[in-house]
Amino acid sequence: MNSLQGAWIFVEDSIWLMRMKVINGVLLATTQTQGPYRLDPSTNQWIQETTGLESNVTNGFCADDSMIYLATKAGPYKCVTPYTWLPFYQGLNLATVGTISAHNNEVWAVTPRGSFISLDQGTIFVKHPLTGMPNPGTLILTDSLYYALAIGSFYWSLNRGYTWSIQHSGLPGPPQVPFLYCNSLVLDADYLFLATNTGLSRSSSATIAWSYVPSIGFSNARSLFLYCGDSILLAVKEAYSYVTQFYSFRSADQGQTFDSISSLPLPGYPTKFAEDNGHFYALAFNRLSKSQDHGLNWSEIPVGNSAIYEHFLSVAGPAVMVGGSILNGTLTDLYLSVTYNDGIAWTDILDNLPVPGWPIFTCLETNQQRTFVSPNANGLWYRDGLLKVMPEKQASSANGIKISPNPACNLVSMSFILSEHSEGQMRFVSMNGALVFKRNPIQLAKGENSIIIDLKEFETGLYAVIVTTAQSSYHSLLHVIK
């Protein structure tokens, strides 16, 4: 057998190299937790290159003639200068949104990549730095003050969320308990209510100074759910208890004192509560209950699919939405439906939502006439018109553009109305931020404009359709199926 000349040269033994690739004559390597490295040929030493990355968990490289791209746990990145990385995604693409909060036109979305903010009802999101607070699990926005719960602590912000500070003054804590943990937070017109592992406390919403509410009878409550209406309903599960019943209390004096009602006659173990105009809803896996008398009596509402087992609940007016995961035989799928008549009829509203590899929703919220939902690791999606009785399905339209048909395969029509003659441009952008199609300039007439686009060069997927003029911008989503 012939032997090859040469020998292997040892370089480094302290780096767990996952994948390697030579790009432009430079050897690059990804690691499990330390980010990307490049090999210096003059010293045979690995140099860590993580500037600009939000996650050091890196999976692979690729490159074209002008750019190097990197796959990370926080999404795709591109190398703009040797070696500084910038995100190669738009807004919330590829994110798992765990918390969402909205007030007027401002929408916050909290993800493992950090917090993002939108000032236009959720159409465009930008990264929003949090100073003084980790990612919150509960976020409440008002005209002047913001409140949050993060890792068991209460925070508030006086400057619209740019800086945060802990406010625990007046809360019972050690030595009464080994540590203080905040479970849930709710706001009514004048007061904040904070449920902790020491019980319930109340504070003016303008000046945070907590006072203990002793009358609920549980000095150490494991889980508390609070909802404010004409009166306040408090649902309590005693700490470390495995009993599936919740106990309810009601206050008519803005939470100074609570009167015991009874144990809540709910089927199963409720994990989601919601309130709308004094009507309370509780969801226990595939069983939904409603109370019209502030928690005194409950009746069960039929749920559209009995196989649902992971779920979210949102209520606004007559619209009751339930979403989560279902079992279809041995497979898991997504489930999202709405009822306007307390469960007599349910309508599927999944439509063009992507089904993630782990098919769950991570949030479901409503604000004004807009409904937000996040399929796991697929960003944030919104839809208008679900809070009123839905008409028959027509061509999809959003923010001024009507797309027909949608989904589409070959040809698609884009229609929108302008108030005056204008010159503009049309762009199609894929969900990974790539510009797929551009027509510039286009002459647009006053009144209705209709443009036909041939989709033969498009691949299956979702595309943002954006039409801009000097006066305004129009956009919608196109679903292409080949």
Distance between the termini: 53 Å
Question: CATH superfamily of the largest domain, please?
Answer: YVTN repeat-like/Quinoprotein amine dehydrogenase
Secondary structure category: mainly beta
Report low-confidence residues grouped into runs of 5 or more.
390-399
Share in helix: under 10%
Mean pLDDT, all residues: 78
The beta-strand count equals 43
Number of helices: 0
CATH architecture descriptor name of the largest domain: 7 Propeller
If you consult CATH, what is the topology of the largest domain?
A: Methylamine Dehydrogenase, Chain H
- In one word, what is the shape? globular
Which CATH class of the largest domain is shown? Mainly Beta
Tally the structural domains: 3
Strand coverage percent = over 45%
Largest beta-sheet characterization? 4 strands, antiparallel
Going across the major beta sheet, what is the strand order?
1-2-3-4
Rg from Cα: 27 Å
How does this structure look, described?
- This protein is mainly beta.
- It folds into three domains: 71 residues, Thrombin, subunit H (Beta Barrel), CATH 2.40.10.480; 286 residues, 7 Propeller (Methylamine Dehydrogenase, Chain H); 85 residues, Sandwich (Immunoglobulin-like).
- The chain contains no helices and 43 strands.
- It has a four-stranded antiparallel sheet with strand order 1-2-3-4, with no helix packed on it.
- A hairpin with a 2-residue loop joins strand 7 and strand 8.
- The chain is globular.
- It starts with 16 loop residues before the first strand and ends with a strand.
- About 2% of the residues have low confidence.
